[in-house]
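[job 4471] stage=fold_predict status=RUNNING
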Amino acid sequence: MEFLQEPEVWIGVGFLIVIAVMVYVGVPGMVGKQLDARAAGIAAELETAKRLREEAEAVLAGYKRKAEAVETEAEAILAAAREDAERFSADARAALSQQIERRGKQAQDKIAQAEAAAMAEIRALAADAAATAAEKLIAARLDEKRAAALISDSIKDLPGKLN
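[job 4471] inference complete, writing C-alpha cells
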C-alpha cells in the first residue's frame, strides 16, 4: 500500500470525487440546459436576423422599383422639357421671322412714301420752273399788240365756251 502515499493517487481520487459530486448534483444537465438555452437563443437571433434580412431585401427591392420609377419619370420629364424647348424655339423663330418681315414691309412702305414725296416735290419744282420759264418766254415774245389781240379773241370765244 505504498501507492496510497503517492500524491498523484490522492489527486486522482479527489478528482474522481469532484466529478462524482458534480454528476450527483446534476452539473452536466445544467450545463446541457444552459447550452440548449444558449443554442435556442442563437437560433432565435438567427431567425430574427433572417427575418430582418428578408425585410431589408424587400425594402431594398421596393427602393429599387421606386428608383426605376423615378428614373423613368425623370426621363419623361426631360423628354417633355426637350419637346417644350424645341416648340418654344420654333415659336420664337417664327415670331422673329414675322417681326422681321413686318419691319421689312414697314421699311419698304416708308421708302415708297419717301419716293412719292420726293416725286411730288420734284413735280412741284418742275411745274414752278416750267411756269416761270413759260412766263419769261411769254413776256419776252408777247408784245402789247399781240396781247391785245389774244385778249379780244378770248373774249369773242367766251360765249361759245360757256354754253
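[job 4471] summary: Residues 56 and 62 are 10 Å apart (CA to CA).
[job 4471] exit 0
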